[in-house]
## 1
Amino acid sequence: MTEDKEIKKNLKDLDDICDECKEQDESVTQNLILTGFKICKSCRVSKTIFPI
């Protein structure tokens, strides 16, 4: 029973919604795997150029 809750929680993290701009993008899951942050490609680039 607790495994089902953990699986649902993990699947919720893979919803492709960016934490910064709140838009849905395919690159969110890719960046989550690569960097550990749920951000889309455009937010990642802007954070790299302007790290404030």
Note: The chain has three helices and no strands.
## 2
Amino acid sequence: MHLIMLGLQQDEAPAALEAVTLPEERVPEALRQLKDAPGLKEAVLLSTCHRFELYGVVEELEAGLALKERLGRGYPWLLREGEDAVRHLFRVTAGLESEVLGETEILGQVRRAYLIAQDQRAVGKVLHALFHQALRAAKEAHSRTDLGKGTWSWGSLAAEELERALGPLEGKTIAIWGSGQLAGQGAHHLQDKGAHLLIAGRTWEKARTLAEEVGGKGIPWEERVSSLREADALLTATSAPGPILTREDLQAIPGPLFILDLAMPPDVAREAEDLKHIQLRRTTHLEPILRERRRQREEGARAADVLLETRLQEFWEWVRSLAALPLIRSLREKAEVIREKEVAWALGKLGNLSPREVAIVEQMSRRLVNKLLNDPTVRLKEMAGDGHEERYLKMLESLFDLPAEEEAR
């Protein structure tokens, strides 16, 4: 058994990430298509604006390498395996791998990715335990260190950037395209600043619900461009596969208009960047702020790293102990066969016994087997977690003449 992560990140392969990123509603279908991948036993797919990662359990490492072909031929996939894959997930979930160091949106995204995989029956014992441990460890890192000091997020950064561009937002009209987590957070922060919001989303029900939550106005998707005539600014953060606002669209808007495009891939066509009446900002324009916020949280991040490493080792010891379980089962099955034979022999020698006396003999034999095997079982699980499991398991096979169970290992 091998635990792996195959992934792409925005800072390492932005073009490839744009090509493979999936909106949340398409993740279930992607998981269903992966179910017949040879050697893939469990899978969770994490697809966000900034990363695309498949966490999986495979029988052989070669099966993990073959998954690259399914996910996208020719892309620069990064493969992590074993403890390295676990460490990466823990750091991602805690926000240590985010541009916004310590941000908490990713924790919710990881939780939803796990729940979607669970709904698709793509999660087994290993990934179930891994994602529960990652989520617990991330929450602990935020509560016990300064990693979460000074609550902020992409949504709050968006509101700050709009305020820098427009001045006080009280009474300003802001159009928001998108109804996902980032757009939702931005909407709530803008509501707090007194802005009037026009919200358009590709799914009308989601956009209408978000508009109701923030006291804004829902705009039908087909009317989104024309509604910009009423707006002072646009915050766009959809999961569309390509640009949804063209140069021609913007030429028809009298302006001036400030646009903050936080979508990945971008919602605003690159050809529109030189229009005089448009002031366009993308995620790259927020990098100076990100660097300063990162500096403020670095000390908390170091403390969080230590805590996460402790939780990682606890999880990895459990993973290693799994190698001993099939052999322990074989040992107990063999002991049970011997017990049944010896009880039958004893009952035959003792003659006519009452049902109560037969039950006592049966109970005594079971208690004897359980007590004899308890300490070896506990010790074997402990030893299987110290990195030398192969040697111990082979020794147990030889000592008790047990069948090797290669599949379980």
Note: The longest strand covers residues 2-9.
## 3
Amino acid sequence: MKRICIYPKDVQVVTGKSERYGRTIINKIKEDLNKEKHQLVTIDEFCAFMGFEISKVELLIK
């Protein structure tokens, strides 16, 4: 089963940066999309924000 949400640990795996960087990126995406604090960021939103191909990201975070 595939999931649709991305978490800071996933951002760390994809980018090779720290988990803190992952939290920062997710917060920037939430600000950019005017999401509330309790709302999650999807893999599609993350890929659009970062300019990554969804298929490549999904392979890394399966």
Note: The two ends are 9 Å apart (CA to CA).
## 4
Amino acid sequence: MAETNEDKILGLVKATLGYKSSVRDELLKVVVKSIIDELEIQKRISINFENAEHLMFVVDYAVFRYENKGGGTIPRNLEYRLRNLIIKFGGA
């Protein structure tokens, strides 16, 4: 079975968090899917999963969301990167 983009992101999120087991995979998959949907539907950013900038933004944003249980103020570096993505890739 071929690895999907979401599986690739899940692996990177788990590596960032230091998780080796699959206990939290279902929750992490939903977090990743919600971020991709938010970027594509709400922010109208066409995600290119071959673009490392896009890929790592989704990974970093997923880690932030997971660690902050969906709340909290977005860190400045993520906010800055999101604004750049919107400017460069939004509205497609």
Note: Residues 5-89 form one domain.
